[in-house]
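Discussion board: Methods & Data

I've been asked by a reviewer to show the raw model output for two of the constructs in my manuscript, not just the figures. I'm not sure how much to include, so I'm pasting the format here to get opinions. Each protein appears as its amino acid sequence followed by a line of discrete structure tokens. Is this the kind of thing reviewers expect to see in a supplement, or should I convert it first? Here is construct A:
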Amino acid sequence: MAGNFGRLHCYSAVDLAPRLCYGGRHTKCRRQVTSFRRDKEPWSGGPADDSRLAVAIRQHLEEADVIVGWNSILHDIPLINARLAAAGERPVRLGEKHGRPHLDLMYYAGGLSMKIGSRALDRVSIFFDSPHRKTPLTPKVWAKAGEGDADAWDSIVEHCELDALVTRDMFPHLAPYVKKFGFTLSEVWPFVSQIPSRTHA
């Protein structure tokens, strides 16, 4: 989906801190997820107006200390920025220069890190036997949501929320492959003596 014809439907995010969760589609897991959806207030701006949702997403992202996503560098953030631009709004301020690191886990499911055979989140989650699984969505569901079908909207939101949970499931498996992750010296100085490469026998 591109920003010229596509519209933002929903946004879901979950804290990285592990919490008791039964896996699957259990409602206790989904209650841990923060979701915004364009078919509900205060994010609804009309059938084709996603400006309120785009601004709400930007605000929520900029409140985080660290952003962790899946294909978020090349897809999610550029799409959000395109929809913000369409609304006459500024882009999301992420990255080291804004003090808000952005980590895309997709790059650590391949390349020099490991050779699973696919970087697709659903395939990687199967490889690591994630307690959650992505839900499939057909074009018919997207079309029905565009017509205002409530069940279709619920299916899309469930898909978004499971995406967030599966990404969190992948974090402990892929984080050890992150070789460089920028922090200011003032942030890490109290812990320098605990870094293995800086300790001496």
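Construct B, same format:
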Amino acid sequence: MNKEIRLISKDHYLTNRNLYFLAINSSKDIPNIIQLSSRHFACLIVWDANNASYEEISDLIKILIKNGAAYICSWGKDCERVETIADIIRADSESEYDSSADSVIMTTSHKDESLEEALYFFLSLTYPAGNYEKTMRSNLVITIGSSDWSDYIVKIIQNPESLRQ
């Protein structure tokens, strides 16, 4: 899989945000520096995290938050655990900064939804807390460990009508 972050769509029609995509083999392949077109971003993690350790998930979330993730969504096996760990890491991170409601990093998991439903939610309903409204102008989809998911997501994103159905 290509470990480079690719711009898929400028000003995506559902979000008016730039949409980026990253496919990696393992959570350990996440770049330490994530450069997007805005300071903050929403992120969708598509991953079978069933066999991932707490440390693996924690390390991934810490990198995302350090690089400006203001909204983290997860989909795939054990996505609820990914969200729970993100909430724990988020709470620790917020104690270092502003912990007001306007600065909270949002999290969701999409266990009982199809990948299409999770993508639609991610692209149309990820509204950040108040302090991130002006600076969250990017979305990043990350697939971990599945080239099938990667190919499928890129195909769906490039055919926006499929998400409207």
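Answer (T.O., handling editor elsewhere):
This is acceptable in a supplement if you add a one-line summary per construct. For B, something like: The chain has one domain: 6-164.
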